[in-house]
Amino acid sequence: MSDSPIKTSNNKPLRIAVLVSGSGSNLQVLIDAMQAGALPIEIVGVISNREDAYAIKRAEQANIPVAVLSHTDSGKRMAIKTFETHASAQLTTWQPDLIVLAGFMRVLSAGFIDNMPPPMINLHPSLLPVYKGLDTHQRAIQVGERHHGCSIHVVTAELDAGAVLTQALLEVHRKDTTDSLQARVQKLEHQLLPWTILLLAKGVINLNSQDKGTFSILPTLPLKLYLDS
Ligand code: GRF
Q: Which residues, other chains included, contact 111 with Cβ-Cβ below 8 Å and sequence gap of 6+?
């Protein structure tokens, strides 16, 4: 990760690359905000590790360059090292200020993460540090959590363990199922992601290699949004 905070003081839009694996509803929120002029960003490219991801269509419809890195030329599923080699080359071409993992479902290697010049953030569907990994909504219901939500954290080599920048939380309803909770949390994600990127673009949250996330006005991170949906 680079030593300097994200460059935005020159009033240029923040250049963002988005990594996706699925539907891309979070990507769509960013596209809509960019097109509406509501967020000072330029989505310079989208990388999908799945060729069937609907996110690809969303990017194409918005005329955003897309790299699909799912299979090798011989038809084999790409090994993570091969994926990372191609992704690195693509990102070098696009020169993003920030890499956003939005529903990206492959685990990246420490070498890739540590050597990537721009900071990288990930959207995770739980109130980290609880429920790292998969099946977060199901686990929250099984335990009987009163609150649940989503987090945006800095990507580090340890899975879902980097500094948490922001969180959005809601109350778990007694009637919630895994599906209803997932849908409710996804609504939060659609607010948390653009809000967090705005804070980064405006320099309110600074990312640098020393502390991997400092807040320039208030003393502590994560910033929390309490939302109901
Ligand atoms: C999100 O719910 C995220 O929390 C999870 O994957 C989902 C991606 O959704 N990791 P989408 O592809 O942005 O619609």
A: 84
**Distances in Å between the alpha carbon of 148 and those of 61, 162, 181, 195, 227?**
33, 19, 9, 19, 11
Q: Please tell me which residue in 124, 137, 148, 190 is annotated as part of the active site.
A: 124
| pTM for this predicted structure | 0.91
Domain CATH for 221: 3.40.50.170
Q: Is 16 helix (H, G, I), strand (E, B) or coil?
A: strand
- Cα 154 vs. chain centroid, distance in angstroms? 9
Atom of ligand 1 nearest to the CA of 28: 13
In a domain, 96, yes or no: yes
Q: Is the CB of 103 under 6 A from ligand 1?
A: yes
Helix, strand, or coil here: 65? coil
Decide: 125 and 190 in contact? Cβ < 8 Å.
no
The residue whose CA is least distant from atom 11 of ligand 1 is 24
Residue 147 annotated in active site: no
Ligand 1: which atom is nearest the Cα of residue 124?
A: 4
Q: What is the pLDDT of residues 126-182, one digit of tens each?
A: 999 999 999 999 999 999 999 999 999 999 999 999 999 999 999 999 999 999 999
In ligand 1, the atom with minimum distance to the C-alpha of 25 is 14
Structural domain for 68, as ranges: 9-226
Asked if the structure places residue 157 within a domain, the reply is yes
For ligand 1, atom 4, which residue shows the shortest CA distance? 125
- Specify if 2 maps to a domain: no
